Amino acid sequence: MSRAGNIESLLQKSKFRSSFKLTLKDLAYIKRVGLAKIKSHAHDFIVTRLKPANPENDGKQTPFRGHPVFKAQHATATCCRKCLYKWYEIPEKRQLSETETTFIEKRIMNWINARLQ
Question: Percentage of residues in the chain with pLDDT exceeding 70?
Answer without folding.
Answer: 96
